[in-house]
Amino acid sequence: MELTTRRIAFAGILAAVYAALTVLEGLLAPELAYGTIQFRFAEALTVLCCLTPAAIPGMAVGCFVSNFFNPLGFSAVDAVFGTGATLMACIATWLMSRGMEKKSWIFWLIPVPTILFNAVIIGAELAIFVDNRAFLPGWGYNALTVGAGEAAVLFGLGLPLLLWLRKDKRVNSQLKSV
To answer: What pLDDT sits at residue 90?
Structure first.
């Protein structure tokens, strides 16, 4: 992917939107944005990675910035592992979407990488730094709750957003050209 001014600007705007949404949510309901039962509204934007690879760095930077506002006390760890989970999920989403034109059923699986990477990685992070149980039960519980929250956001907000963007020919072509 060639770095153009347009791609950098798009990634920057996406990073700012993700960070602003998450920080605001963290101020209003810190447990939903950073806790063991996560319902991060900004995660719905990860579906944009299937339309343009320029969304990948935007999502990663937005996640990195927003995780420094983690009120639970492990923001540096969250910035590393949370950003890693988001980055890997976005790359997997982009790679998965390459077959979407030929196999339309892939569209319905677009949220899966984000759900799985966050459930596994953030679930482990929360088990280590927040949960007072033994690691495996804590990880299992946190993976389940984070995964459920991710699934709710991505299937409830992300897929409808993606459906709308794909139906709007002008917006869709603009995103594909970024």
So the answer is: 97
CA-CA distance, 70 to 68, in Å (whole number)? 5
* Residue 125, both tokens: 């992070």
Q: Dmax over Cα atoms in the chain, in whole Å?
A: 52
Measured CA to CA, the distance from residue 102 to residue 111 in angstroms comes to: 18
Residue 74 and residue 122 in contact, taking contact as beta carbons nearer than 8 Å = no
Per-residue DSSP letters for 95-132? HHHTTTTT-GGGGGGTTHHHHHHHHHHHHHHHHHHT--
Find out whether 66 and 177 touch, Cβ atoms under 8 Å: no
CB of 44 closer than 8 Å to CB of 89: no
Chain segment 56-86, per-residue pLDDT in tens: 999 999 999 999 988 877 788 889 999 999 9
pLDDT tens digits for range 128-141: 887 777 888 989 99
Contact 46, 86 (CB under 8 A): yes
- Look up the pTM and report it: 0.90
Which residue is associated with the tokens 């993700």? 18
1 and 91 Cβ atoms separated by less than 8 Å: no
Rounded CA gap, 63 and 27, in Å? Answer: 16
Start-end of H helices in 2-74: 5-28, 30-34, 55-67
